[in-house]
Amino acid sequence: MLIDEAFQPSDIEHLVDVENATASRQIFCDPGIWRMELQRIFTRTWLFVGHASEIPAAGDYVTRLMGNDPVILVRDAGGQIRVLHNSCTHRGSLVCRGTSGNARGFTCPYHGWVFDNSGAIRATAMDDALYKKHTDYHHFDLKRARVGTYGDLIFATWNDDAISLDDYLGNARWYLDIMFHRTPEGMEVLGAPHRWVSTNNWKLGPMNFGADGPHAVKVHGPITDATFAGGNARQMLRDALIESPSVSMGNGHNGIWTQAPEAFPPFLGWEPALIELFQKTLTPEQLQLMQRAVASVSTIFPNFSWVQGPASFEPATKMPTTFLAIRNWQPIAHDRTEIWNWFLVEKEASETFKEEAKRMGIRTFSAGGTFDQDDAEAWHSIQRGVEGEIGRTLDVSFEMALAYRDRALVDFPGPGTAYPSNYAEVTEFDVLVEWQRYMTGKIDWAR
Amino acid sequence: MNDSEPRVGDADYRAICEFLNDEAELLAERDYPQWLSLLAEDMQYLVPVPEFFEHGTARSVGRGNAYFDDDYPSLKVRSELLSDPTLTTAENPPSLLCYFVSNIRPRRTANADEFTVTSNLLIYRIRASEPTPYLLAGKRHDLLRAVAGGYKLARREIRILQASIQGPNLSFIP
């Protein structure tokens, strides 16, 4: 039975109460809703699949997920970036089982069908002419996803009707430029992605990074105290979160820009040569938002997020270094999310800075990270708390949004709609508002 | 592997095995301050992210990533956080941990007071909120330095045997 036969838009509509800023807990614990998300969101939107610096040369590839479909992100022999369905067109086997590599093509492990690195069929197990029905041999090419790039960020979609990636990102491009295009050369990945499985519904990640200000004080207060010099870092964090802007960028893209207290120097955590490049590359408005941001956390709908901030594990003696993590929240089951997590750094950064930025990222935002380890337990606790027969009849609350949604900032430097607090819950809830639009077929090109 | 290096004598073998067993028990009992006292000040602690390559196509991404890349000061921060249940969400209540260390193979080095030791590691972990045990296996490559009254751990690299960490966090020290 198709899931669509079990759920109609009218069944989904009421699960997110846009007016009252609440949502049914059922959206986190129903396997049927998860399957419907894979169909209505993950086969329809643009999805982040990797960074161009992961596949710098012809033949370079990495294996990825789009929803629950395995794909190969590869730079073909002609230099074109391809996203190939990792499934043989004969009987369906994975044609590549490594995490990364360089190859002229891929050979199916079952019958030895061969595909070149553009996905074109090169050999079957027997004389090709015997496939009488298919005069066009390329009938057997690997299925190719549509590829879109924004700078070195690579996205893909299965949806030929999807609006262009530029239009899909929309206002978010202004913010993506701050994160990924702030120097002439741009960013590079520092290594293969972390992968770990958190035991919660995938939406908790994009919402948290969309972003949840108040959890930071409760969950991350102690590590903030330990990694920031000065007596009352936690209180300073709380004050900063309450007074800093959250931004709804449109199309379900949301985030926060936590501004440092007055006493902090601008551009905390970057080396001087990089700061000079930022000042030459970004606009005054972008610099205004960036230069005092001690945390930048955002989600590009549906499952791509970033987190950036300065950190030092010897705060009394060592100035902080800013790390940047990007991640996918892969919906591997209704109650399981595989987190794919990369660290990025400016290509122009010194060797010392690159290594330190990687270390600060690993020590904070990763499976063993002093920030992530606690988020994952909180999300696990939510999943266990909502999935009972009584639990799923209740709601989750974003009702702080009711106090803030009419208080859009008028003097905010960036596009989209900004609200005056990281505690506002407006932008975090907006991730679910967008979710509802896809799930109920309200977006023409994604229907 | 450290097979090309000469084996140690009986006394060193026994002392190194005891050191690693005692050290593992401190981690399992979450006695992190005491564990920290076994580390050299120049300690390097690394748990790389494993990559998997099909034959003939091997290529790492970037400069390689790690789940842990720590030194003495950062392990001290972790030790302080993990020792106090009020400082983490992940370890309140604290996990139950059991460390299995086996195949301990110490070797001498060109430095009379330093030994390389490889060993296998299996960690069994139970969290209060999750009845299913979490298992993490790895191959350890350690550098031990002899000091007055015992050894200090100067370097540890753990090559973990997992493509994807099958749990929500690593809020312990493997």
What does this structure look like?
The complex is a heterodimer of chains A (447) and B (174). In chain A, the strands form four sheets. In chain A, strands 13, 14, 15, 16, 17, 18, 19, 20 and 22 form a nine-stranded antiparallel beta sheet that branches. Chain A has a seven-stranded antiparallel beta sheet with strand order 3-12-11-6-5-4-7, with no helix packed on it. Chain A has 14 helices and 22 strands. The longest helix of chain A has 15 residues, at 372-386. In chain A, 29% of the residues lie in helices and 27% in strands. By secondary structure, chain A is an alpha+beta fold. The model of chain A has no long low-confidence stretch (mean pLDDT 95). Chain B is an alpha+beta fold. Helices cover 21% and strands 41% of the residues of chain B. Chain B starts with 9 loop residues before the first helix and ends in a 14-residue tail after the last strand. Chains A and B meet through strand 7, strand 14, helix 7, strand 20 and helix 11 of A and strand 2 and helix 3 of B.
